[in-house]
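Annual report, structural modelling task.

Input specification for the iron/sulfur cluster complex:
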Amino acid sequence: MEQKPILEVKNLQISFQLNFGVNHVIRDISFFLNKGETLAIVGESGSGKSVTTKSILGLIDDNGAVEVGSCLFRYQKDGVDIEVDLLKCGKDYLQKNIRGNKIAIIFQDPMTSLDPTMKVGNQIMEGMLDHKKVKNRKEAVKRTLELLELVGIDNPEKRIKQYPHQLSGGMRQRVVIAIALACEPDVLIADEPTTALDVTIQSQILELIKDIQKKTGVAIIFITHDLGVVANVADRVAVMYAGKIVETGLAREIYYNPKHPYTWGLLSSIPSMSGQNEEILSIPGTPPNLIQPPKGDAFAYRSEYAMAIDFEEHPPMFQISDTHFAASWLLHPDAPKVSMPSVLQARIDAYKKRGDDQ
Amino acid sequence: MRNVILQVDNLKQYFRIDRHTTTRAVDNVSFKVYEGEIFSVVGESGSGKSTLGRSLIRIYDANAGEVTFLGKKITGKLNSETTRFLRKNMQMIFQDPMASLNPRKKVLDTVAFGLDVAKEVKTKEERKQRVIEVLKSVGLSEDHIARYPHMFSGGQRQRIGVARALVMDPKFIIADEIISALDVSIQAQVINLMRKIQKEKGLTLMFIAHDLSMVRYISDRVAVMHLGHIVEMGTVEDIYEHPLHPYTKSLLSAIPHPDPDSEKLRKRVLYHKQNIDYNHGQIQSLNDTHTVLATKEELDAWQKGDYSDILVQM
Ligand SMILES: Nc1ncnc2c1ncn2[C@@H]1O[C@H](COP(=O)(O)OP(=O)(O)OP(=O)(O)O)[C@@H](O)[C@H]1O
Ligand SMILES: Nc1ncnc2c1ncn2[C@@H]1O[C@H](COP(=O)(O)OP(=O)(O)OP(=O)(O)O)[C@@H](O)[C@H]1O
Ligand code: SF4
Ligand SMILES: [Mg+2]
Ligand SMILES: [Mg+2]
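The model returned the following structure:
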């Protein structure tokens, strides 16, 4: 029998009140996360990646509200299967049963989750002791030193006695990762966990996260705009644009057979390492204003492929395979046949060719 | 010959942790930055990049060394005129956007802060116009001025930091990891913007970054930092096409690619830093633009392609 997803978000809509209007930031998104898998959420700055995941833990700002939607979470407590809607169960329940303990989140901006007045060692131990993951302080110290070593921090004995401002930016980020891992959660939400890290440490952390996943079966939502990183960690990918998921599929489907023009743009704007003179293609224009969301597809006025209908009606999700979906009118049977930019096609062909040689 | 805007000689910045430990965050670093160029500093986490920037802009007092900026010495005790000169002409955009933005201040006031301190604008209207102009240039809009920092996404916050530095029309900007928090399309926009301003106003940029693929696109010259030392420095071509230092080579080998199949198989090159002591090395010139920190023996070995003990293929 097929297992039900550990996390299932349905028809989520979130808005923020501003004094000159309502910001419709999340506009009807649905996705799921299976046990033990890694889902990457990618998309432009401001597309709603952080707000989506924060809402799951009841952490959106006071001027924001979930208007519609549900988020089912399935977990076990004392051997009993429990299913709750995280969007309806209330802050106290979340704080007591879920946050940190069952679902841990690594925030994008490490300084916001560290207490500047507290030594980093104590900050890592706090959660373990609170959630009774260790028997006593001595064991907590031992575990903390192990964790710091795992995230690649040298001299952990010295570092636990330092304050956040005495660490470099990347070290602070690694401390935050250690805090999240300390409680061995069922779900780990990692919001840009490696953006402040150099490539060497980044690959080390990615290896670490994958290792932990193998051992504990933790399911991971990985938020990033770095498509190189996604290729390394993700089983499935969801591409967000202006508060909607516009394409979702297995990592290989998204990388080797992307269907949505926005995904094409994202993939084309990665600098390739082949030469400096090749231009970086960027997606023209700026993201839409969601206080007055455009009619039709929000990407239409930045898309060279846009057709008349795109300015009228938002496209539905078209199915490409069992696992691959995209919201673009180009996939409608009556649409003219267009293909992805030639630069991108050439790059993908090169990858595939190399793959065949191996 | 191009003008040197910033000259750094033997700069040292140490932190005393306790009686037995001192972190040598920046250890005897020398380099020049030319007017109008983009000079990037790359290196692993904790290698001293931010500290270097912070010492230049005088958040810290350097332990030793001399820095000359636009012909003025900016190390040691500064008189009030030099301090003002430095504040106006050198700006830093900080790595942690939230930590450097005041949560209780609206974007308008945050961005206008420098203008207010320097008494740069006469009227409220002019102040607002300057802020709106610069916000637009970084891809934010007029309706953002009345919002507080927490109401923005991570990348948007980073752009507020960029706007705050740009509004002063400085000659030299130190940008600490600003591109890493931005997605690729905004990265390209911010970089194009910086390039445009650079051309129009002769701006010089020092980029601190770890994203080696982006650095390649934006920089004229690159310095690779490790453990407080600049281990290799040169033009983009020198560093990316002809890297010599084993640390540079290991960094280049770790760049991720947007290609799941190859990522699954990727091999990394491990760098054994315990087998090398930077304090014994001297700066060796490989050509007019390319230098590497090495002893004579190391240099000989590396030039023959011998990296045994130091680089290990995994
Ligand atoms: N408290 C708030 N009030 C008003 N708007 C908000 C608030 N918080 C977030 N937003 C807006 O919601 C949108 C989505 O923000 P979110 O932080 O989810 O973006 P993101 O996809 O994580 O981007 P990034 O990659 O830059 O971190 C942004 O346009 C942001 O300005
Ligand atoms: N105020 C301080 N007090 C004590 N030690 C410090 C202080 N600031 C930095 N350090 C130490 O100096 C070293 C270099 O830190 P720095 O922040 O310059 O690194 P970085 O290269 O910018 O790294 P990252 O890429 O992680 O931001 C680190 O070991 C750090 O712990
Ligand atoms: S639906 Fe239309 S506007 Fe949207 S991505 Fe497809 S072609 Fe472009
Ligand atoms: Mg975000
Ligand atoms: Mg730094």
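Residues 263-357 of chain A form one domain.
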